[in-house]
Write a structure and sequence with these properties.
Blueprint (H helix, E strand, L loop, with lengths): L5 H11 L3 H8 L1 E11 L4 E9 L5 E8 L8 E6 L15 H4 L3 H9 L2
Antiparallel strand pairs: 1-2, 2-3, 3-4
Helix pairs in contact: 1-2
């Protein structure tokens, strides 16, 4: 599988990260924060999605490529906080990599 668009990314998340995430996708708000060159603690690249429930609870889901021996596979896990210094959405023209609000994310990365 190749994720090429925001809708594919959010759809994959909804299908593969059950429970409250599926409800947040359907009833709350999702925000693609874009591509990060590395995301601690495993320091691999991936996307971070901010999920906000209809009640205002916010959490983050990380989507990263799965095992190198299984191309086209992805893993998902939850984390707290966003490692803005590793945001790299402005390094390409892909809207998927830039995220939903790239100018805001660039300011967060640059500490403005």
């Amino acid at each position: 599988m190749h994720i090429r668009t925001r809708n594919e990314l959010i759809g994959w998340l909804e299908d593969n990260y059950p429970g409250r995430t599926a409800r947040a996708v359907q009833e709350g708000h999702t925000e693609n924060l874009g591509l990060f060159e590395r995301i601690p603690p495993n320091n691999k690249p991936g996307w971070i999605i901010r999920l906000t429930s209809k009640f205002g609870t916010t959490w983050y889901a990380v989507i990263q490529q799965g095992k190198a021996t299984k191309p086209g596979t992805f893993i998902v896990w939850a984390r707290t906080g966003v490692p803005w210094k590793y945001w790299m959405g402005d390094t390409c023209n892909s809207l998927l990599h830039q995220g939903d609000n790239p100018e805001e994310y660039k300011e967060m990365r640059d500490g403005r």
